[in-house]
């Protein structure tokens, strides 16, 4: 029987991004992709991202995070999930441990992430520096300018979408800027076609963005490994960076997603800060039967 049976978890969301937070500090168990997928398939614990806390690895950090998508694959970063983790580590009676202030430093596969409480249930996450070179994102082809890359969908003389910006915020992103409401595009069909395109060796998050004003962007996101989601923090950050590089906006914008709004700033020091809310839906324990088909 897996060590996760009957283990407590928190069900949360950040601007609509469904998050499950699992505390495995003081445990040696590493969640497998099959376990993560089984957790996601149970309606009681379904998630867009599973945020798993482990004991800190690097001195000066508060915890190590492993992040899983719905299909069991791993993600390097999740801004909405990081805010939820911060709330759990600071406020949840079972997970909270003494800290000197309302700030935490967490470590992920993509590097160190700082998070700070700015209101009762609002946090700012320092998502670090965007990666803009083709081999850092990564892309298959050596594009000298990733502000717009050669990719389109639809007829060659009248494409539905074309020339996305490419950015990595710990996860690779392709952002298509459009003049119409993003809701007018069938992202549920387009997303899976482009997520695994050969140009993206590690797959990619696919976004459709409309710049409504110099400081407002409307966004929809197909997340690699999770599908169509109500919000994606790294996509919001990548979109602000991509729009700013094209001089469509300044270096700060409110990003409106189906699940809520996020405030994103690309600072002069090249760090991207994202501020948004967290919501606690409840808690539960993993039913042993959801793991019954997994090998011990």
UniProtKB/TrEMBL annotation:
Subcellular location: Cytoplasm
Catalysed reaction, written as an equation: (2S,6S)-2,6-diaminopimelate = meso-2,6-diaminopimelate
Biological source species: Methylobacterium thuringiense
Pathway where it operates: Amino-acid biosynthesis; L-lysine biosynthesis via DAP pathway; DL-2,6-diaminopimelate from LL-2,6-diaminopimelate: step 1/1
Pfam families, sorted: DAP_epimerase
Chief localisation class: cytoplasm
Sorted UniProt keywords: Amino-acid biosynthesis, Cytoplasm, Isomerase, Lysine biosynthesis
Biological function: Catalyzes the stereoinversion of LL-2,6-diaminopimelate (L,L-DAP) to meso-diaminopimelate (meso-DAP), a precursor of L-lysine and an essential component of the bacterial peptidoglycan.
Annotated catalytic residues: 78, 232
Name used for this protein in its record: Diaminopimelate epimerase
Transmembrane region(s): none
Recorded superkingdom: Bacteria
EC number: 5.1.1.7
Entry binding sites for substrate: 17, 49, 69, 79-80, 171, 205, 223-224, 233-234
Family to which the UniProt record says this protein belongs: Belongs to the diaminopimelate epimerase family.
Annotated site residues (Could be important to modulate the pK values of the two catalytic cysteine residues) in this chain: 173, 223
